[in-house]
């Protein structure tokens, strides 16, 4: 399983992930060169759910260029270009398919950071943003989100405070969730990167 957390700031975002992967038989730690957060074309992409989604995000998916988009233009781009490209890639890789009588779905939640903005993309390819600017997904998500809320109770926190809170949230999740473990990866992104 997984714990991925992210914090939205003013013109920046922080994302962090653990390294534990498990199936019905065992749990193991992902190699440091291949984590749960993919870096490609200016995006940071994390996934909780099936390991197959992480494999595809790391090795196959080439997201469309978001250029210098922000605000509502970026939201529209995510809806009209990014998500269709993600869905097409998942379907071409045999990961997600659509029964003609059902809506399109896959079995993971994707956290996409682009131009310093966070988008949480659910199994049905809908995206959302939370007014709190705090996100968490995976088996340890409840612990991590509670930790973030306690560590960053007031608006106006700095990037360094957010990075520290993300690390602390992951450490708390690792103590309480059997499927979350170090080492942790913590990455930042700004509007300019």
Set down the secondary structure blueprint.
Layout: E1 3-8, E2 12-17, E3 20-22, E4 27-29, E5 37-40, E6 43-49, H1 51-59, H2 71-92, E7 108-114, E8 117-121, E9 127-128, E10 134-138, H3 141-151, H4 159-176, E11 185-190
Antiparallel strand pairs: 1-2, 1-10, 2-11, 3-4, 5-6, 6-7, 7-8, 8-9
Helix pairs in contact: 3-4
Q: Describe it for me?
A:
By secondary structure, this protein is α+β, with helices and mostly antiparallel strands. The protein has one domain: Aminohydrolase, N-terminal nucleophile (Ntn) domain (Glutamine Phosphoribosylpyrophosphate, subunit 1, domain 1, 4-Layer Sandwich), CATH 3.60.20. 31% of the residues lie in helices and 28% in strands. A five-stranded antiparallel β-sheet has the order 5-6-7-8-9. A four-stranded antiparallel β-sheet has the order 10-1-2-11, with helices on one face. A hairpin with a 5-residue loop joins strand 8 and strand 9. Helix 3 packs antiparallel against helix 4. The longest helix is centred in the middle third of the chain and has 22 residues. It starts with a strand and ends with a strand. The model has no long low-confidence stretch (mean pLDDT 92).
Beta strands, count: 11
H-E string: EEEEEEHHEEEEHHE
Tell me the distance between the termini: 29 Å
Enumerate how many helices there are, as a single number.
4
CATH superfamily: Aminohydrolase, N-terminal nucleophile (Ntn) domain
Average pLDDT level: 92
Briefly summarize what is shown.
This protein has 193 residues and is of the alpha+beta class. It has 4 helices and 11 strands. Strands 5-6-7-8-9 form a 5-stranded antiparallel beta sheet. The chain has a 4-stranded antiparallel beta sheet with strand order 10-1-2-11, with helices on one face. It has a two-stranded antiparallel ribbon with strand order 3-4.
